[in-house]
Amino acid sequence: MHDASSPDAGWQDLGPVTALQGRALQPVKAGGTALALVFMDGVFSAVSGICNHAGGPLGEGRLEGDFIVCPWHNWKFHCRTGQGEPGSEEDQIPVHPVRVEDGRVFVDLQPSVPRHRKPHPPHPLARPVAREPGPWRMVGISTTVMDRGNPRYSTSDALLETALEGARAEGAETRLIKLNDLDFRACEGYYSKSARACTWPCSITQMDADDQLDQVYEALVHWADAVVVATPIRWGSASSLYYRMAERMNCIQNQVTIADRVLIRNKVAAFIITGGQDNIQAVAGQLLGFFGELGFLFPQFPYIAHSRGWTAEDMERNVAIVQQDTELHQGARELAGRALVLAKRLVEECPTPARISRGGRKAHWMKP
Question: Residue 89 has what pLDDT?
Fold first, then answer.
């Protein structure tokens, strides 16, 4: 990045033409102002280096025809007019006049066109997090993968449905979310571009109205007091759908680390794990660690599990066992009951902390 250090207001010297014309798009800084400098068809132009959406560095993006594409979330602005892409012309970034004199490039820090952000209604998920009055609420999340057109019996789903039945028997309202029924994109790693590029709500959710993981965000952050996640064991790990969801939930945890904003407060998580091979403790450890990082708390004995071990290849018998084992299903009901008891106690007895303080990268509670 070039830095024009002249303290004079107005026109700033960016440097020699020979040094700046080698790149079609580059970030420059003049008098403390971040700019995106473009050299196209033998002509220099400059616009603000700060994207209207989330402050992404436009100068580090790419050119797509006449448009600069932000490297964070792919918003586009015309490299000479500063206007948003067709359909978003109301979005405008500042345009800075450029001139070339004596083989050097100068830019005017006073923009000829000001910034204008097109009014965008806030995303429904962006509303303040507050428990709404009403009955206690539990959401069950199924992470089993199967052919939608040819569903089969799932041992983890069966126990999850029993757990939700138990919650309803305790007077709770319940929802069942089957990830297999949702169409949602995989995490695209915005955090790896910049911590601030991982936003709440998830940038994918904001940009793609057809992305259905908003149902999970709504349930976990705004609606539920308790969540029960059910997963099969797949090669010693939770299901692939579970990990797709977990990666997209990174935006919840990142709000803690980059904004001191805790979205999950006084909520409880519990788990159901089944599989034809062992490794229950390792799967449970990942679930507990991840949901703990999101801010969930756990009841005593926070998961139930069933496995017949590595050598049990007669899987049809495994299904029959889960179908007929009254103790397993009673355990699922009791798991839901323990989760609800803790959730009620947290909501009724534990005040919401006024703020948090970060220790290193992680956040810790502080008493008001």
Answer: 83
Contact between 266 and 241 (Cβ < 8 Å): no
Tokens of 127: 């509303």
Pick the closest to residue 275 from 315, 325, 324 (CA basis): 315
pLDDT above 90 (res 314): no
Contact 71, 88 (CB under 8 A): no
DSSP per residue, 217-269 = HIIIIII-SEEEEEEE-BTTB--HHHHHHHHHTHHHHHHHHHH------S-EE
The CA angle 258-259-263, to the nearest 5 degrees, is 110
d(C-alpha 163, C-alpha 335), whole Å: 7
Would you state the structure tokens that stand for residue 81, as one six-digit string? 């007019």
Task: HSE, CB side, 13 Å, CA atoms: give it for residue 316.
Answer: 0
- Report the distance separating Cα 243 and Cα 249, nearest Å: 10
Backbone angles phi, psi at 60, to 5 degrees: -95, 5
| C-alpha dist (Å) from residue 16 to 4, 22, 195 | 11, 11, 34
Strands (E), the chain: 2-4, 11-16, 25-30, 33-40, 43-48, 62-64, 67-69, 76-78, 95-96, 98-101, 104-108, 137-142, 173-178, 226-232, 268-275, 303-307, 355-359, 362-366
pLDDT number for residue 55: 93
Per-residue pLDDT at 365: 47
Instruction: Tell me the pLDDT tens digit for each residue of 212-239.
Output: 999 999 999 999 999 999 999 988 899 9
Note the pTM of the prediction, 2 decimals.
0.85
Among 66, 55, 68, 56, residue whose Cα is nearest residue 26: 68
3-class DSSP state of 338:
helix
Q: What is d(CA 117, CA 237) in angstroms, rounded to the nearest whole number?
A: 45
Sign of the torsion formed by the C-alpha atoms of 76, 78, 81 and 86: negative
How many Å apart are CA 353 and CA 340, to the nearest integer? 21
Going from the N-terminus, what domains does the chain have, and what CATH number goes with each? Answer: 2-108 (2.102.10.10), 124-366 (3.40.50.360)
Instruction: Return the closest-CA partner of residue 220 out of 205, 237, 198.
Output: 205
